């Protein structure tokens, strides 16, 4: 029987690779995002079901369950990003507060709201997988704090879902090339440093992350919960 799998922010990058991975194996995949364009493209390409939704907005999420199947087997909280690379350099306190909160909303609050919103649909034997980041261990400003918070919150979530036979884990990527995450904000020097900091000497790919998500969402991982799985090519954790 195919499983029902919800992937937030699934129109591009890592989420898209995760969606394709499951869809190619016959699972019923639902992807969300704010921009209809990438979602439609993926829906046409991979036969997934696409929904426009902003996961930081409770008002938008309230309507989500009505669009979902009664039973949800896997939730992948992937939507997120670094909403302002200079957040910690702001001198104006109001801007600093706005940018700091935007990072927490994008990566931590969005995952908590989404999980809360679909909690009643999560089926026994199911899995929740969040996409964290190596930034959580690097002291990487508001973004790193939001991903560290996600891992901390997940420990509580795992404790709550465990008795229902549902696991909750974090996949924590290092530098992943070929996504919109860094857009044009990564200098050549910084890219070279990110690659040089790995043991494997290469950036990760969205497919590397999809494989790890698929494992944690599989029955083979049923005794793994409340954990962070680092998928970073052995990258060292200093900036
Ligand atoms: P992308 O920018 O390609 O993917 C992020 C996706 O999330 C987009 O499709 C975006 O679509 C969607 N999204 C963002 N905010 C929201 C929101 N509020 N509601 C709904 N959808 C949203 O980058 P990645 O694939 O690289 O990023 C995926 C995850 O991986 C993120 O959580 C990121 O923090 C994490 N990560 C990435 C790393 C990398 O090196 N690339 C390293 C470590 C972690 P739209 O704008 O249309 O909403």
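^ structure tokens above, recovered residues below v
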């Amino acid at each position: 029987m195919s499983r029902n799998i919800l992937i937030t922010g699934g129109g591009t990058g890592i989420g898209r690779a995760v969606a394709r991975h499951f869809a190619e194996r016959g699972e019923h995949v639902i992807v969300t995002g704010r921009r209809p364009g990438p979602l439609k493209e993926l829906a046409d390409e991979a036969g997934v079901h696409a929904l426009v939704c902003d996961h930081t907005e409770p008002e938008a999420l309230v309507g989500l369950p009505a669009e979902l199947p009664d039973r949800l087997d896997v939730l992948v909280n992937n939507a997120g990003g670094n909403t302002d690379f200079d957040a910690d350099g702001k001198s104006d306190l109001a801007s600093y507060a706005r940018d700091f909160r935007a990072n927490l909303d994008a990566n931590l609050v969005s995952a908590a709201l989404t999980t809360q919103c679909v909690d009643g649909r999560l089926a026994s034997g199911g899995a929740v997988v969040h996409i964290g980041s190596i930034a959580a261990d690097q002291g990487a400003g508001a973004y790193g704090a939001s991903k560290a918070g996600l891992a901390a919150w997940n420990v509580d979530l795992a404790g709550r879902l465990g008795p229902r036979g549902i696991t909750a884990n974090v996949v924590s990527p290092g530098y992943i090339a070929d996504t919109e995450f860094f857009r044009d904000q990564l200098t050549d020097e910084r890219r070279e440093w990110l690659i040089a900091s790995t043991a494997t000497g290469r950036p990760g790919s969205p497919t590397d992350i999809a494989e790890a998500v698929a494992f944690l969402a599989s029955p083979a991982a049923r005794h793994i919960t409340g954990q962070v799985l680092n998928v970073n090519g052995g990258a060292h954790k200093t900036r």
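The CA atoms of residues 125 and 165 lie 5 Å apart.
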